[in-house]
Specification:
The protein is mainly α and 103 residues long. It is built from four helices and no strands. The chain binds zinc ion.
Length: 103
């Protein structure tokens, strides 16, 4: 149960918290929307069989959760234009890593 709360807490609450705490009012909604869309990389699960397995660690297993992909997400953080997208993806990876640790 703790694992479930932490995993989805990071997926949904962290993006909202970052948007509210670190960005100006007029940017908040946009930033939160982008950060929440980080969840979309779970689309790579459709290539896995079974699609969802609570006892499988996504990190290093799915294409968009591979170490190469994670390296690319970190690189995105270094450029102004892609920083928020990179941050969204890193938050997603952190949520999944936490999930793997608690497995
Ligand atoms: Zn994931």
């Amino acid at each position: 149960m703790l694992r479930f709360i932490l995993h989805y807490g990071i997926h949904f609450i962290v993006p909202i918290a970052i948007g509210l705490l670190f960005f100006k009012k007029e940017l908040q909604l946009k930033i939160i929307a982008i950060l929440l869309s980080g969840i979309l990389i779970d689309i790579d699960h459709i290539f896995a069989n079974p699609i969802f397995d609570p006892n499988r660690c996504s990190i290093g297993f799915h294409i968009l959760h591979s170490y190469w992909a994670i390296t690319a997400y970190i690189i995105l953080l270094f450029f102004d234009k892609t920083r928020i997208i990179g941050l969204a993806l890193i938050i997603h990876i952190i949520a999944d890593i936490t999930d793997c640790w608690l497995m």
